[in-house]
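Here comes a specimen:
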Amino acid sequence: MVHKVLFWSGFGLAVRFWQLGIEMRPFFGKESLWAYPLFAGVGGSFGYWLTGVERRQLQMLSDRRESLIEKRRRRAERESRDAEESQVGGVAA
């Protein structure tokens, strides 16, 4: 989780540098130093949110996988039971 937050914080800082580069303004002017923590914080917040989204998606996929495995197990049991019944019925006839 920390690596994603740090990456997106760095991305926020890179966006700020890119913005100032496009505007051809100095990177470290006294009047604009407050924006660096702001951009890093917004980027870090996005990274934190994205981590939660990923965790929820992985949980959803895990639940779905377990559901499918259980469904396949029940189907295999039903098919083996049906096969046994048909063999028993064929022998008795």
Notes: The CA atoms of residues 75 and 81 lie 10 Å apart.
